[in-house]
Amino acid sequence: MSTTVIVGAQCGDEGKGKVVDYFSKDKDLVIRFQGGDNAGHTVANEFGTFKLHLVPCGIFNSKATCLVGTGMVVNPIELKNEMDQIAAAGVPLDGLKISSRAHILMPYHRDLDSLKEQSGKAHIGTTKRGIGPAYAGKASRINIRFGDLADKEYLRNHFESVLEQINSQLEYYNSKTYTVDEVMEYCKEWYDLFKDRIVDAFALIQTALKNNKKILFEGQLGIMKDIDLGTYPYVTSSNPVAAYAAVSAGIPARSIDRIIGVAKAFSSQVGDGPFPTEVFDERFDTLRGTGANIDDEFGARTGRPRRLGWLDIPVLRFANMVNGFDELVLCKLDKLDELDELEICVDYKLNGKILEIMPETKDLDKVEAVYEKVPGWKSSTKGIKKFEDLPQNAKNYIKRIEELVGVPVNFVGVGPERDDIAAR
Ligand code: GDP
Ligand code: IMO
Ligand code: MG
Q1: Res 123: pLDDT
Q2: 103 noted as active-site residue
Q3: Is residue 360 over pLDDT 80?
Q4: 8 Å CB contact between 386 and 369
Q5: Contacts 24+ apart (CB under 8 A), 416-419
Q6: CA of residue 38 to ligand 2 center, whole Å
Q7: Distance between CA 53 and CA 88 in Å, rounded?
Q8: If you average pLDDT over residues 93-116, what whole number do you get?
Q9: Which atom of ligand 2 is nearest to the CA of 12?
C-alpha cells in the first residue's frame, strides 16, 4: 500500500505543482483535496509549461486517474477553460474525474469575493476567485454539488429556496443579481460538459485502497494560510494540511503512509498578513525578477508580485508539528546561487523571550525574527541531479535546515523543470 500526501510547508507557492508532477510518474490515482482555482501550480515538462488551478498535476501521467476531489470548491467555467488548454497541448484527459461531492463554485461566489475585496471593508488580499463565499455556502448548506447537476427538479427547488438570500448579499453591494432560470441554464450546460466525468469519489478511493493502488494527494496553498491554524483572518477558507486529505477522501488517517512537505529555500507570500522575515532590498528585487521568466516571483494565479524574505524556520517547525513530515522537498535553491551571504530566521522573540511555539496572528505581527548568517555558495546549482554534487556551502545550508527543523531534506529543487531535482 502506498498513500502519499504532498502539502505546502509555508504560505503557498512552494513548488507543489512541480513536485506533484515529479512524484506522479508511478501513481495510479492523484487527488486534489482542497481549495479551488485560487491555486496556481506551475508544471514544466515535456508537454510544455502549465499553471494548473483545478486539474491535479498528475494529469501528465496518462495512466493515472486524476480526481478533482470532494474537499474542493470548483468553478466549472474555469475547469472547462483549463481542460481546453491542457488538451490543446496534447495531454490526454481521459483519466480526469470529478467527485460528485465536490462543491460547485457559482458565478455569484466569485462576484461576492471581488465585491468584498473591492469594498475595502475587511480586505485581506484574496485571489478574488470566490473561495471564501463558496466555502461559506458549504458551511451554510446552501451550495450545490456536482452530483446534483443530474437532478433538474432538485436544482430548481434548491435555487428557488436559496437564491433570494444570495441575491440580498449582492444587492448590499449594488451588484447584479441572478434569476433561477439563469443559474438553471448554467447547470444544464455544466451537466452536458461534465456528466461523463462525475464519479462517486468515496467508492473510487475505497476501491483503490483495497486494491493497494498507489495514491497521491495534492494539497493547495500552505500551513500559514490554514483557516484554523494559520494567520487568521489572512487565510484561505480550507485546511491545506495532510490530515485533511484523509478527511475529504473519507479514509482513515492512518492509511496515509508518506507525508511530504514542500518548502521554498526562502519565504514568500501574496496577499496581506504578518510576515516576520520579509525583506525589502535589491537582493530580493533581483530574485523576484520581472515576471518574464517562468520562475520569477509573481503569483501564478493573480500575477501579483510576491512579498519575499529569508527562510523562516519557526514556520517550518510549525508545519512539521501539524503535518508530521517524513521528508521535505526544498525548492528553488538555485535562486539563491548568487548571494554572498544568507540569513536564516532560527527563532522568534516576543517581549525579549524566545517563543517555543507559533503564536497567534496578533503576536506574530509583533515578533522579532532572530537570524543566523551563513555563507553563500556563489556558483550555479542549476540542473544538478545528485545531492552530493551540490556546492559545499549549499549542502551546509540544507544540513542546517535539517538540524533546525528536525526533518530530512531528501530532494532539492534546482530549476523549474520536472527533473530539476537533486535527490539524496
Ligand atoms: P505551487 O503553488 O506550490 O505549485 O508553486 P507555484 O507554481 O505557484 O510557484 C512556484 C514557482 O517556482 C513556479 O514558478 C515554478 O516554476 C518555480 N519552481 C519550482 N521549483 C523550482 C526550483 O527548484 N527552481 C526554480 N528556479 N524554480 C522552481
Ligand atoms: P497555491 O496552491 C499563494 C492567498 C491569497 C490570500 C489568502 C486568501 O498556488 O500555493 P483566497 O483566494 O484563498 O480566499 O485568498 O490566501 N492564497 C494563495 N497564496 N498561493 C496560493 O495557492 C494561494 N491561494 C490563496 O493571496 O492571502
Ligand atoms: Mg502557486
Answers
A1: 86
A2: no
A3: yes
A4: no
A5: 416/18, 416/42, 416/44, 416/294, 416/295, 417/18, 417/44, 417/45, 418/18, 418/21, 418/22, 418/43, 418/44, 418/45, 419/22, 419/385
A6: 6
A7: 16
A8: 98
A9: 10
Ligand nearest to the CA of 127: 2
pLDDT at 122 over 90: no
Residues 6+ apart with CB under 8 A from 242: 5, 7, 217, 219, 256, 259, 323, 324
Taking the centre of ligand 3 as the mean of its atom positions, its distance from the CA of residue 263, in whole angstroms, is 12
Would you say 12 and 218 are in contact if contact means Cβ atoms under 8 Å apart?
A: no
Angle, in degrees to the nearest 10, between helices 180-194 and 152-172: 130
Specify the pTM: 0.98
What was the pLDDT predicted at 1? 53
Where do we find the cell 478511493? 205
| Amino acid letter, residue 277 | T
The whole-number average pLDDT for the span 148-176 is 97
Report yes or no: 89 and 136 within 8 Å, Cβ to Cβ.
Answer: no
* Alpha-carbon distances, residue 72 vs 45, 84, 231, 297, 407 (angstroms): 26, 20, 21, 26, 29
Question: Which of 412, 356, 408 minimizes the C-alpha distance to 385?
Answer: 412
Kindly state the cell numbers that stand for 206. 475505497
Round the average pLDDT of the chain to a whole number and report it.
97
d(CA 143, CA 148): 10
Q: Ligand 2 in contact with 75 (CB < 6 A)?
A: no
Burial of residue 236, with CB atoms counted within 10 A of its CB: 0-12 exposed, 13-18 middle, 19 or more buried: buried
Contact 47, 10 (CB under 8 A): no
**Ligand nearest, relative to CA of residue 15:** 1
